[in-house]
């Protein structure tokens, strides 16, 4: 007899929101169920370790919804740690890390983070340090909002009914403190609902304006790689190339992720999301692509480069800037603008 799996909470996404106003708590762990669209917002004093993340996961996800079968996250140190991978494996859950330079792989969680930011900016702009008090209303508002995908609220998908929150007609009571607390909660609820409705409308407009089908590739195809998220030195950011390559598709990871055959000198992760690739079209009307950088050379374990010419120098401090043979942009680990005595001549 096989064990049945509840679709709700079977595939979850995790991400951290950082940089919130510091007042004991400055980080939020966002947990998103990819089936029901439900979220949990968990306030934290800072980024946790892999072990602490696992304990939070047990307390806030497993305790309420049972074990998931897949956990999606970015490539943060908590999620790349051996402890986290072993923990998920022992719990029977697979670990899915987002593609390099493409946070949209965990898109539902990223969207929940954006909704949370919109709500907090709306409600606590006057007193930013009070944001933890209103976190539960942001979560409840999201979970009671009807999804355009399921046409039900996440709460209704999980539990089968839509709960009541506040009575339309507020009764009079003889306890002013209780009435003040309920009114404050009701105001928070109303603002949270308005913020999430506004955010959903904006996302719908962006989707209609930007969404278009992506091309598909097979091993051996050549593609350009967007430099939007890549770090390299260039003489002018405005004139820096928008794409590098072309490079050859080495392996199809899945429908949206591809591994490229990159020169070792680039020192970047070879797996890219399809949105960061552009098909290469061979045409006599286009100038030939720049030759690939030469293979890296090493001396005593350190990469070395050949100076093509000195571009600039300072009299004091003996600083200098150079261009490198075979490179249109400076290698990431090249000296760049560094004191000339640190340039070791082989």
UniProtKB/TrEMBL annotation:
Origin superkingdom: Eukaryota
GO biological process, one term: DNA integration
Taxonomic source organism: Nothobranchius furzeri (Turquoise killifish)
InterPro entries, A to Z: Integrase_cat-core, Retrovirus_Pol_polyprotein, RNaseH-like_sf, RNaseH_sf, SH3_Tf2-1
Chain spans, region Disordered: 316-346
GO molecular function: nucleic acid binding
Biased composition (Low complexity): 330-346
Residue span, Integrase catalytic domain: 3-162
Protein name: Integrase catalytic domain-containing protein
